[in-house]
Amino acid sequence: MLLLVTTLVVVILSVLLIVRLFTSDDADDAGLAMLQGLAQVPLSILDLLASGLRAPARAGSSSVTPEQLWSLLWDLPGEGADPAALGFLSAVFSILFGDGDPNARFEPQRWRRIGAFLRQRGGVVIAEDLAPLLDLPDCPADPDRRRDLADAAMLPVLLRFDGRPEVSEDGDLIYGFPSLPARAAKVDGPVPPLRERAFRFSRAGVGQRAAYGLIVGALLVLSPWLLAITPAWLPPVAWLARFAIGYALLLLLLPLARLPLQYGRNRAIAARNRRRQAWAQAARHADPLLKRRRAAARRRGATEAGRPAPRVVYDSGRDLLEQSIDDLDAGPRPIA
């Protein structure tokens, strides 16, 4: 639409200027020079579209294939020879609407990190060490308040990984996950904080943004000019000029309207990242009570690492009739 409207405006405006120059008695060199300058606009647009085809030519290719032309005009993210590159039309779409949520896979990544951390700690942890992976309020200075907030946030983790709270011999609250493969913990301390990525305005390159600005600016300048010189007996041309003015304003205002929204999202992301970092720093500066709770979790994890693997006498993946009496009499089979 952008290329079509721009080309139509330039071509029709050029034709009307030529007609006016030849039918006017006061045509001069200035009018011809202005017309020559206007004729350079579609050539500039075509040059922008063809600029991406010069690289294959320099690499030794003597012709351009239809696939290369399609890749130039509309190379969707993740497709083509270079996944990081954008075709011109994809760059326009990126400038208008952005590139989607950079944290679309954040939640699966969070749960993978939590599961890996639990297995690394022998299946027994304290809430403060897991806090940098959770969404918690601002980290308070009071250790007791920190412990209460971290303990309150453990419920989703307990439900997802079939965990249970336990009380140590000193009366401290620790969390065990017997369903996870247990092994002796080799490291201690909090998990590194999970970070979200900020939204960026567009993946379009500097040249593509300049081309977008050039085309939109040309529409904003040439469309009112076309409307002003359009004769009354050409209403379709006047409608095209009005549509081009509204379309150019939309192309200009839509990216500008995204800026406050992007700023607000990035502020919220930065605040969450700072909170997770603050919880990680608080857990690294451990007080005596926190060290005692970690020691209790470490001892409990070492005990869990020595327990035998859970065994079953019934496999839910098979029908009961298919499981022979000999297999059941031979003893339970370990879980795979």
Please bin the fraction of helical residues: 55-70%
Query: How many helical stretches?
Result: 13
Strand order of the largest sheet: 1-3-2
Distance between the termini: 57 Å
Offer a concise description of the structure.
Helices cover 59% and strands 4% of the residues.
Which features characterize this protein?
single chain; 336 residues; mainly alpha; 2 domains; 3-stranded antiparallel sheet; 5 strands
Structure explained in plain terms:
The chain has 336 residues and is mostly helical. The chain folds into two domains: 2-101 and 205-269, no CATH class; 106-189 and 286-312, no CATH class. The protein contains 13 helices and five strands. It has helices at residues 2-23, 29-50, 54-58, 66-73, 88-97, 106-120, 127-130, 143-152, 155-160, 206-229, 235-284, 288-305, 325-329, and strands at 124-125, 164-167, 173-176, 311-312, 333-334. The chain is rod-shaped.
SSE blueprint and pairings:
Layout: H1 2-23, H2 29-50, H3 54-58, H4 66-73, H5 88-97, H6 106-120, E1 124-125, H7 127-130, H8 143-152, H9 155-160, E2 164-167, E3 173-176, H10 206-229, H11 235-284, H12 288-305, E4 311-312, H13 325-329, E5 333-334
Helix pairs in contact: 1-2, 1-10, 1-11, 10-11
